[in-house]
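Posting here for the record, re: 2-oxoglutaric acid.
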Amino acid sequence: MQLSVALGQIDLVLGDRDANLATVRKLAAQAELAGADLLVLPELWGTGYLLEQAHELSDPLGKGLFEEVAVLAARHHLAIVGSLLERDGEQVYNTATLYDAQGKRLHHYRKTHLIGLMNEDQYLGAGQQAEVFEAAWGTSACAICYDLRFPELFRRYALAGAEVIIIPAEWPTARIEHWRTLLGARAIENQAVVIACNRVGSDRANQFGGASMLIDPWGTVLVEGDDQAGLLTATVDLDTVAKARNFLPVFRDRRVDLY
Ligand SMILES: O=C(O)CCC(=O)C(=O)O
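Prediction output follows.
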């Protein structure tokens, strides 16, 4: 099966939900024209890292910006993944959702590794679940930005059957080589398709490096952005996952008796 992917590598206006939504509306229309099955957006695309206002900038699942994404997904007949500030009672989470091409929410994932370097742990709650889900194209999972540094999460997903792992991010330019290396490693070691969308531009603390990527299970980069805003598109053959896993059966060869 072929999966046609669009990566919405955008700049964000800090705290301006309306401006960011207007950008995403345009992207969704462009992604439909490009024939995409899936549009991936950056981490916290609605607001950026204005965490001291996380409570007022957040929405309950299914409301506000989450609802807007559902409408866009259905209107443009494509699945959409991105993360937003999600409010549940008094707690706020950095939550990635997948809305399918009918606008139905198939999955949500609350970021499990909060990054102290960006004070995320002071303002947000950490997710307590890391589950795979069934998308139209097969078993999939989400991770968010800093999660990329924790291979155990990705291995858990792969062992649970994930063939596609989708990663919204706001990854700074200062560590963009880590981003490139870790994305490739996560794809190769798990023999999975990795789809990662990073923002560009800057906020009060960081410049962000783009380099959004679609990587196949061999580690081949099928498309990579530069550090400018734009919609990147590419198609991946999902049969390559089973082919890679059969050819080099690293899951079978793991030494679970040792580690
Ligand atoms: O791990 C990193 O270097 C960047 C992570 C990050 O910026 C984030 O999780 O928002």
